[in-house]
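Re: your question about Oligosaccharide repeat unit polymerase

S., sorry for the slow reply, the queue was backed up all week. Below is exactly what I fed in.
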Amino acid sequence: MEVQVNINFYTVTCILLLLLNSTASLYILRKGMLFNPMAYFIVFFSVQILGTFPLLDLNSDADLWQAASLAVASYTILFFCFLFYPTHRFNLMYKRWKDAPEELLSNKRLYQVVFLLVLSVALTVLHYQIVGYNLFSLSLQANVDDFTSMRLASYSGDIHTGAGLFNQFKNTILPICYFSLLIYLRAKGGTMLFWIYVATMTPFLLYALMGSGQRAYLFFALIIFVIFMINQRKKRVTLLLAFGAGFLVLFGAYSALLGRQAVDEGEGLYSVIEQLYYRVFIAQQTGSAIGFRYIYNLDYRLGYEWFENFRGLIPGIKGGDLPHRVHEYIYGSYRGTVPVSLWVSAYYNFSLLGVAITAFIWMALLMYVFLFILKLRKDLINRFIASALILYCGLTVFSHPAQIFINGLFGLLFIFLIVGVSRIPRISHTFSRAIPVRNGSP
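Result:
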């Protein structure tokens, strides 16, 4: 099933109006915007708007209601930011956080991070032993006969592989610990130790993140690193560019190895950019556009589908199957998933009113996540945890609310369980008493 691109005056007008809403919302959040999960959510939502509206036929009832859902979500977000975001208080708290000293890792936390890294490595190896293969390794050997079937079998096959549990370690905890130790060794470990670490752990990180055949987790790891770097007091542009260039090379090379794209001579970079554009602006939006058409004539679930999704977080219990049904609707096969957006999911559960309520509640939750982040001590592990949390909060716009746990929130909570929650010294625990500091003291 395909969707046609419909770009006309009404489509362009809708896009411009909703992007204007996003711009106004971001302007309200401008202080500390680069470390604010609300801002990232709005940016990802804007990407969703740009990709979705050209796919809608506004003469179709289903597509018209989907456009209305996006508009309701957009205006609700602007309404929340304008009336309920305490700009002055958050500006003071952000200034305090920004002025707080950046730290590496205490000896205790260093040992804890090393422990988590070793544990993640061991569980990653165990996971691929249970699965029976690693698609990244097989791809390097040009030894993949049926990539799609092997990819699906690695996390939803007949043999239970515990992918949900292992993914928290290999896709979240492992990259966070890897990056934390990378920055630590770059600052204190000396050149030789740093390069030994890079030479040994970087290949394993790729083995872990790309072994299931999914490139998304490599992309997530890069974005976490980028969020961390752009919020450093001292920007390390060279290191950031090196990781960005490395990502493009790996993304393109792996795509070619898997046969997902044809890389013609002289067109390698163009092909990589084309694939990135497709992943960011087309792939998910197409699934959501068709998914809304699928659920449009179905009865509202009154929250039961979300209940199924959260219940499915418990090991051994099946969650909601809407992504599987949408996949079957599009491709004729139940085996596989096509996730729908947060707004499609909210409409399916609670109607258009549910879209507005969902947008309002989610923005309120993100505001308090930002408050929590601004109280964290600025050592390496905390800043990487915050960067990952910001990303996962933003990505929720592309799926149902329980997806944030699947993406990696459980992993972040486990890190906090091991290393503890360390706050900026003497910061006020009362929201209304937030005050700025200079030179590290109030």
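DSSP finds 17 helices and no strands in the chain. The chain has a mean pLDDT of 85.

Happy to talk it through on Thursday.
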